[in-house]
Amino acid sequence: MRALNFRGAGKGIWWGLLLLIGLLTAAGQPVAEQPLVLRPATPSFTSPLFTIKQVRDERPGRPAVAWLLPTPPATANVARPVGLQGGTEAALRQFVTRTLPARPARYGVTLRVLECRVQETAAAGGQAAGQITVRLAFDWVNAEGRTITLTEYRGGARYLRPLPDRTVVEPTLRQTLLGGLSYFNTWLTRAATHDVRLATAVHPTARFHMAQTEADTVFYDPARPLVWSDFTGQPRSQGRYAASVFPGFAYQGRPRVVNGVVELELILKVFVVRSSSWVGPGQQTAEHLNHEQRHFDIVRLVAERFRRKATPDSLTVEDYNSILQLQYLKSFTEMNRLQEQYDAETHGSPLAQERWNRRLDEELRQYGIKK
Questions:
Q1: Phi and psi dihedrals of 316, rounded to 5?
Q2: Is 124 helix (H, G, I), strand (E, B) or coil?
Q3: Is pLDDT above 90 for 147?
Q4: How many Å apart are CA 298 and CA 42, to the nearest integer?
Q5: Which of 86, 150, 164, 193 yields a CA-CA distance of 20 to 30 A from 56?
Q6: Angle formed by the axes of helices 320-346 and 286-309, nearest 10°
Q7: How far apart (Å, rounded) are the C-alpha atoms in residues 26 and 44?
Q8: How far apart are CA 358 and CA 348, in angstroms?
Q9: How many CB atoms lie within 10 A of CB 173?
Q10: Is the per-residue pLDDT at 2 higher than 70?
C-alpha cells in the first residue's frame, strides 16, 4: 500500500513538474505581434486614365509583409513577422479601393504584387533601421482579350525609428505603395499618346497618291490618262501584242495612336512603270492605247476594292498590319487573274473589247473614280 501511495504521489509530482515546465516555456515565447493597419493614401494626381479592377498577391510563398524588431522589454533583438490586418491581398485591395475610388476610366487594370516587404535590422542607439521594397506589375486586357503587362514599378524607402515606437512604419509603406500608383499614372498618361499596345480600336483612312512626282512612274489619275510618250521601254519581239504596259499598285501605312485609337492612314499608289512599258513601231493607234489604258483601270479598281476591305471591323489592334498584308496579297492575285482574263477575252475581238470598256467604265463610275 505504501508503495502504491508512493508511486501515486510521485506521479502527481511528475505531472506537476511537466505543467510548470510548460508554463515556463509558454512564458518564454514571443507575444503575437499586432498586425499593421494599412490606411488609404491621398494621391497627388486627379482624373486618372485607369482604375484598378483587381489586386493579386503573387509574392512567392506569400510571407508576412513586415519583419519588425520587437518593442522593449523584449530582449531578443531579432525581427519578427508582422502581417497586414485582414491579410495581405485583402489589405492591399482595400488600400487601392479607398485610395482610388471607382470611377469610369479608359483602362481597367489588374495590379499584381510581386514583392512587398518591410525588413528591419538593429541600428546604433537602440533604434531600428527599416528598408521597404515594393515591386508591382500592371496588366491590361486589350480589345482582343489578350492580357498585356504594360509596365512594372520598383520602389523602396528607408526609415529609422526608436524601438518602442512603430508609428513610422505604416505611413512609409503607404507612401511607397502610393508611389507605385503615381508612377503608373504618369507612365500611362504618356504612353497612351503613342504606345500601340494601349489602343482600343483601329480607324483606317485611305487616299490615293496621284501627283506625278517620279520621272519613271505614272500614278493613276482619272484626269490624266496614259499617252504614248509614257511607253519608253525598248520594244520587244511583238508576237501577238502590239504594245505592253506595266501597271501595279502598292500601299503604305502610317499609324499613330490618338486618344487610345490607332489612326491608320493608308496611302495607295496605282502606277505604271514607263521604262517597262513599250509599243511596237507603227502600233501607236487609239485602239491600242485604249487597250493599255484599260489594264491601268483594272488595277485602279482592284486597289479600290482593297481599300474598302480595310474597315474598323476588319482590323484588330494586334494584327492590323498582317491583316492588311494578307488582303494585299489576295488583291494582287485578283489583279493578275483579271489582267490575264482581259487579254484572253479581248485579243482579236473588238466586240469583247467594247464589252470590257463598258464594264470598266461602269465600275469606275460606281466607285466615283470616273464621272
A1: -110, 155
A2: coil
A3: yes
A4: 65
A5: 193
A6: 150
A7: 48
A8: 18
A9: 25
A10: no
Angle at 70 (CA atoms; ends 64, 76), nearest 5 degrees? 110
User: Contact 297/356 with Cβ under 8 angstroms?
Assistant: no
Q: Which residues contact 248 (CB under 8 A, 6 or more apart)?
A: 270, 271, 273, 299, 335
Helix (H) or strand (E) holding 269: strand 261-273
CB distance 113 to 92 below 8 Å: yes
Distance CA 106, CA 20 (A): 65
R_g over Cα of the chain: 39
Return the closest-CA partner of residue 104 out of 44, 51, 45, 52: 51
- CB 270 within 8 Å of CB 328: no
Residue 275 grid cell: 521604262
Count Cα neighbours of 269 within 13 Å in the Cβ-side half-sphere.
14
CB-based contact 114:96 (threshold 8 Å)? no
What pLDDT score does 144 carry?
Answer: 76
With contact defined as beta carbons under 8 Å apart, do 180 and 240 qualify?
A: no
Do the bridges between strand 50-57 and strand 107-123 make them parallel or antiparallel, or are there none, so unpaired? parallel
3-state secondary structure of 147: strand
d(CA 290, CA 271): 16
- Give the Cα separation of 56 and 370 in Å (integer): 61
Over 80: is that where the pLDDT of 280 sits? yes
Residues in the chain: 371
324, burial (CB in 10 Å: exposed 0-12, middle 13-18, buried 19+)? buried
Report the b/e string of 217-233 with b at 16+ CB within 10 A: ebbbeeeeebeeebbeb
Which residues make beta-bridge pairs with 264?
204, 255
Closest CA to 328 of 248, 220, 251: 251
C-alpha cell at 17: 513538474
- Is residue 227 within 8 A of residue 212, CB to CB? The reply is no
Residues 305-363: pLDDT tens digits? Answer: 999 999 999 998 888 999 999 999 999 999 999 999 999 999 989 999 999 999 999 99
